[in-house]
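ok, trying the design again with the full structure, not the truncated one.
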């Protein structure tokens, strides 16, 4: 039994039976990278779940900002009308404060009563 010099020079990796899939645990860079990813995605203050919630809240606030901006424009338009037009002042007082003239009777019909 003569051994070839080729067999001696090229060592074959030793494998443990059934534990071949655990060989990545020997790689310290892979372990460090995996630990870093787990930390960043789940345990950091800026983790994945928190970022998704922040983006949803940001979108909600942007919608609210747009809606409030539209309300401000409408209110400014009404204020301009109230400052310049006497009929608008009377209409506003009658609709919002239920004011009436001395010789008038005021009847209020609500939408729920009209449907009956």
């Amino acid at each position: 039994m003569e051994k070839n010099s080729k067999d001696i020079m090229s060592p074959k990796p030793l494998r443990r039976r059934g534990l071949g899939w655990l060989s990545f645990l020997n790689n310290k860079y892979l372990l460090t990278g995996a630990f870093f990813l787990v930390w960043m995605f789940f345990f950091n203050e800026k983790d994945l779940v928190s970022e998704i919630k922040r983006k949803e809240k940001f979108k909600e606030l942007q919608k609210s900002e747009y809606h409030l901006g539209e309300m401000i424009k409408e209110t400014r338009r009404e204020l301009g009308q109230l400052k310049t037009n006497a009929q608008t002042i009377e209409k506003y007082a009658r609709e919002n404060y239920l004011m009436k003239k001395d010789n008038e009777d005021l009847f209020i019909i609500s939408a729920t009563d009209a449907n009956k």
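Keeping the full-length input from now on. Helices lie at 5-9, 28-43, 48-84, 86-97, 111-114.
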